[in-house]
Amino acid sequence: MYNQELSLVSAHWDINLMNRDGINIKNSGVTIIHLKFGKAVQVKDYLFDIGDKF
């Protein structure tokens, strides 16, 4: 059954960072946002390490 009050938004993202030691870090992730009447009621991030040292 479809609930018109609740919606789900998802986004996939990639990020490349350098830590304090000068090591490059690559992460990938998915963010899931649950909306109710247009307002975020729950946000979850799922992170994945995809760097060379993983």
List keywords for this structure.
69% strand; elongated; 54 residues; 3-stranded antiparallel sheet; 0% helix; mainly beta; Complement Module, domain 1
- The CATH topology turns out to be Complement Module, domain 1
The largest sheet is: 3 strands, antiparallel
How many H/I helical runs?
0
Distance between the termini: 41 Å
**Record field, number of beta strands:** 3
Explain what you see.
With 54 residues, the protein is mainly β. It has a single domain (6-49), classed as Complement Module, domain 1 (Ribbon). It is built from no helices and three strands. A three-stranded antiparallel sheet has the order 1-2-3, with no helix packed on it. The model has no long low-confidence stretch (mean pLDDT 86).
